[in-house]
């Protein structure tokens, strides 16, 4: 059955792979499923046809026959549960891998989203210079704890899993701020993710669309 | 096998049910699983024994035999996949319910967490009065979109599911700000959640611990 995802017609990051379709492309490549991409403009994202697929007017969405999903965590989990390659067979290890997926989106990503907001949306506000270090420190607190847990391991819990895919994708968003490089173990962890052939294919696919266009944000 | 969760020795909310153990208690009650609670102090949460269970030093955690989990989304999903009552049988409906779990924690909760930070941690900052309306508007944008999608339905996708459990739990955190009541459909949705016998039992259990102690926050 054909899988179709949506992605930005023109990603605000200019092809750095930080838009959320990259996570889904990566998962699709890891499990070896071909997919098609429908590109949507910022205007189209807020129109009824797209809102029917994604009530919050964002990308990516995922269509497979009459199944329609949104939320990268949900899409990646759906793929991981149906195809080999992203979740261990052992039930306990599987539950722990899913725990890392939720940790990525609910513990690590919220302060990172706040940092992105502070650095972009509130960049010109009078409080920006004084407040930004507070926001950065909240990101550092979480990354410090994560780095301790990862230690010298390659991945968060045994073999590479959907938990690592989501975590590395979320951590990538801290690279433009320079904070990722303050945590060498995490920077190396993200680099291990980027070195996976599936990630390289996913990155190249989004770059082919966005890399030649100047960033909009 | 005995299930043991952790909860605050003294919840900062003084028993309003906003601490995250309530979500897990609710799920346990919905699927009819008995559980024990180990209470942890703020100091103990940052000590090695607890950090081994929860690398970010928070509550709740979940232990069942030699399985140890954290992240409420992961714990609720684990329970929902192993016991009847929180996920539909149809594979597509199940994937959509899980989508709502991720929407709760990755789309709706991040701006709510930012609002909680603005209202509490940054309350005394010089920018607080000018910035707070911006943060509130970001919450309103998401709640407005969610309200449109919910429409006049009782639950987000057919019967009550783990997606509704997570979404109602997350929305509850907007009640102290007054924003929840600006969206009557969502306020009624949360009230439907609170009226479920399983929620009532979960709320009562945490209130028995926290309700008699003054809030700390």
UniProtKB/TrEMBL annotation, chains A, B:
UniProt-listed CDD domains: GST_C_8 (cd03207), GST_N_GTT1_like (cd03046)
Q: Check the record and name the Pfam families matching this protein.
A: GST_N (PF02798)
Domain GST N-terminal, by residue range, is: 8-87
Its lineage opens with: Bacteria, Pseudomonadati, Myxococcota, Myxococcia, Myxococcales
Where the record annotates domain GST C-terminal, the positions are 90-217
By its UniProt entry, which SUPFAM superfamilies does this protein fall under?
GST C-terminal domain-like, Thioredoxin-like
> Would you tell me the protein name for this molecule?
Glutathione S-transferase family protein
Source domain of life is Bacteria
């Amino acid at each position: 059955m054909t899988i179709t995802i949506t992605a930005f017609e023109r990603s605000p990051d200019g092809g750095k792979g930080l838009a959320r379709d990259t996570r889904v492309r990566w998962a699709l490549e890891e499990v070896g499923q071909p997919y098609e991409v429908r590109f949507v403009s910022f205007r189209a994202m807020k129109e009824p046809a797209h809102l029917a697929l994604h009530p919050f007017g964002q990308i990516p969405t995922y269509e497979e026959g009459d199944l329609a999903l949104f939320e990268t965590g949900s899409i990646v989990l759906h793929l991981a549960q149906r195809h080999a390659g992203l979740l261990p067979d052992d039930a306990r290890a599987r539950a722990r891998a899913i725990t890392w997926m939720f940790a990525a989106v609910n513990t690590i990503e919220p302060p990172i989203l706040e940092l992105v907001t502070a650095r972009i949306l509130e960049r010109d506000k009078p409080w920006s210079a004084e407040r930004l270090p507070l926001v950065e420190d909240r990101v550092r607190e979480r990354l410090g704890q994560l780095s301790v847990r990862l230690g010298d391991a390659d991945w968060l819990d045994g073999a590479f899993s959907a938990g690592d895919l989501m975590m590395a994708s979320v951590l990538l968003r801290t690279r433009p701020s320079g904070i990722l490089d303050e945590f060498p173990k995490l920077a190396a962890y993200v680099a291990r993710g980027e070195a996976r052939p599936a990630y390289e294919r996913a990155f190249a696919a989004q770059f082919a669309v966005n890399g030649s266009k100047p960033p909009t944000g």
